[in-house]
Amino acid sequence: MRRRLRDVHDVASGKLCTGCGVCAYLAPTEVRMVDVLDHGRRPLPIVPAGRGPDAAAALRCCPGAGLGHETSRPAPGEVAELRAAWGPVRAIWEGYAADPAVRYAGSSGGVATALAGYCLTEAGMAGVLHVGARSDVPYLNETRLSRTPAQLLAGAGSRYAPASPCDRLDLIEHAEGPCVFIGKPCDVAAVRMVRRLRPELDARIGLTIAVFCAGTPTTRGTLEMLARLGVDDPTMLESVHYRGNGWPGQARARLRDDPPERRRELSYAESWGDILQKHRQWRCYLCPDHTGEFADVAVGDPWYRPTGDDPGRSLVLARTERGVRLVEAAIAAGALVLTPVAPAVLPASQPNLLGARGAVWGRVATLRAAGLPAPRFRHLPMAGIWWRHLSLAEKLRSTVGTLRRIRRKRLREPAALVPYPEVAPPAPEPARHGSHLGQTGRPLSK
Ligand SMILES: Cc1cc2nc3c(=O)[nH]c(=O)nc-3n(C[C@H](O)[C@H](O)[C@H](O)COP(=O)(O)OP(=O)(O)OC[C@H]3O[C@@H](n4cnc5c(N)ncnc54)[C@H](O)[C@@H]3O)c2cc1C
């Protein structure tokens, strides 16, 4: 018989947690997010509260437990041919941040940072909730509300490491005006779910931006990358970057006592290809949404272009009318330099992601057949992709291969969630106001 998920702790111990942190926002007196070396950011019960009703109620907004659209049919104005496999898309562009410093620092073309910056400086928004490196432990991430373009720029670039931007949604809820939220597809999916329950939050979400994501590598992945960069003692780390400074740019680390000319660099193929992607958390193998289907705007890499000596470009999808409006306004204001491109550029840019979505169907079906918990998905078509786009070998890998992974990854055993490292995080920015579930006057029900 399949085990039922009782609360977000069951999601985490069942290895289905994405690490978004929405449960810590919804149940701040019961749940805290910690880094777990071989898993990612995970919710742990706050002692002595233990497992309480809010952690159970937070399941309703947990993207690890499930996610879905209202329909899989295209609405008027959406690109019909993309709806089934890529979610709602209203407009597609390719381009970059007009400010060369933002373009260069950005992961692909700096569009996420430039669009959020436009919202801050020209569209009257109060802040941008996103992640950046912790100053005390630079290989771990923290969530911040950036209020100036300079703060925003400090968080530009992809961090191929666990991050839980939803854990500080309270900063948006209590901000003095609408804010931008930037996160991975699962983070943005959590925001879509939670704003339905939290009208105060909903009123202050001015725009959501998702970065395309093939999966989050664990902290162990970063440590392995740092070792390859010659970092024997990570406590000596001054900074670590995974990409940026050109497209896709080099992974880079600096130690506090490195002389100025010392360079520690790995190519994208060496860092992501050889090391990081092998450390992706298990839940990412069960993810049908790698392109931010629940966001207003989603940005990714135009991988169909040859990489090399390139300052960078992003592929930009507007998925809602609000997204179209704000991207067009940012172009008109000169913050973004974007050119419309044909719908076919999306599948050409992300050839692996279609197959990845099909494989999810095989994996989830196998988990269910084996009596293991699996996420619930609604209106995210996968079976047809599995059938039509996967070769026989790929079909077998997604099913028989999953049976092997159940053994190898010990999916029947609960995850051992031990915080790593035992370093106190920096003092959080104030804003928390008790249990968010309590504020609604009634707990969320499952
Ligand atoms: C884990 C991960 C996997 C990725 N996989 C893919 C992929 O499969 N295909 C693809 O095209 N692109 C992938 N990317 C890269 C990213 O989607 C693109 O580079 C995108 O185009 C953003 O580029 P940009 O220059 O517009 O963003 P930037 O202007 O550089 O802004 C990036 C924003 O993302 C935020 N951010 C960085 N890391 C994280 C994180 N771990 N969690 C939440 N927010 C974060 C930053 O705070 C910043 O605000 C991945 C990124 C990450 C973090």
Shape: globular
Q: Note the beta-strand portion.
A: 15-25%
* Structural class by SSE content: alpha/beta
Strand segment tally? 15
CATH class of the largest domain: Alpha Beta
Largest sheet: 8 strands, mixed
> Stretches where pLDDT falls below 50 for ≥5 residues?
434-446
Task: Give structural notes.
With 446 residues, this protein is α/β, with parallel strands linked by helices. It has two domains: 118 residues, no CATH class; 211 residues, Aspartate Aminotransferase, domain 2 (3-Layer(aba) Sandwich), CATH 3.40.640. The chain is 34% helix and 17% strand. The strands form four sheets. Strands 6-5-7-8-12-13-4-14 form an eight-stranded mixed beta sheet, with helices on both faces. Strand 5 and strand 6 form a beta hairpin. The longest helix is centred in the C-terminal third of the chain and has 19 residues. The structure holds flavin-adenine dinucleotide.
Helix and strand arrangement:
Blueprint: H1 8-13, H2 22-26, E1 31-36, E2 40-45, H3 53-57, E3 66-68, H4 80-86, E4 91-97, H5 100-105, H6 111-121, E5 127-133, E6 141-146, H7 149-154, H8 169-173, E7 179-183, H9 185-197, H10 199-204, E8 205-211, H11 219-228, E9 237-241, E10 251-255, E11 264-266, H12 268-273, E12 297-300, E13 314-318, H13 321-332, E14 336-340, H14 345-349, H15 351-369, E15 376-378, H16 383-389, H17 392-408, H18 436-439
Residues 106-113, 130-132, 155-160, 163, 165, 182-184, 187, 211-214, 216, 290, 299-301, 314, 350 line the site of flavin-adenine dinucleotide (FAD).
